[in-house]
Amino acid sequence: MLYAIGDIHGEVKLLEDLLEKVPSKKDDRFVFVGDYVDRGSDSKGVVDLLIDFSKKRDCVFLLGNHESMFLDFIGWEADEYFAGDAFLMNGGDRTLASYGYFEMLEPDQEKFKLPRSHQKFYQNLRLHYREGDYLFVHAGIGRDLLSETDVGFAMEKAPPEDLLWDRAAIDRPHKLGLTVVYGHTPSPDFEVRWNPPFSIGIDTGAVYGGYLTAIRLPDETLFQV
User: Which fold has domain 2-224?
Assistant: First the structure.
């Protein structure tokens, strides 16, 4: 089976509870749609748990806009989509604190050091992932892709910042022939955003008092804590 998990945002206890609740087997695959860090109390603990979990289950980790802002802030400039001037204004101070940096108010690559296992984790984050009838991206697809029919071409064409940030077309129909599974945009009522057969939004506001959600595919069973 295939499971997708929504935005975690430092809520390590919710992640622990959700992974225990999901009745997974060793040959199941988990796709995490990004935003592991910021706003919640233990971003480092979330990444530690994800790294440990990936040793037990096959996992795909996507890049979220909050990881992009974090990596830009600490001086990782290898990729043009690591852009995020508003890192501290979007809960980044709590991410820094979870790594033991409590008064870091401006980027300082020399002072900030990630654990080696975390460096590898962040370096391997993906912008998108396709399996079967599903396409997983952090923010959804932008307006420029709604008329595309070739998924491979669409992903090559898509500006990385759109896949990380753009929520303008999340509920719009498209012609990709796949269901887009995304996070990034919590619904006001903390419910899954269903738009069959085009998209499923699984950011259910865990860090805002909502739920952390896993969806099992293709039967679309929900697990929430």
Answer: Purple Acid Phosphatase; chain A, domain 2 (3.60.21)
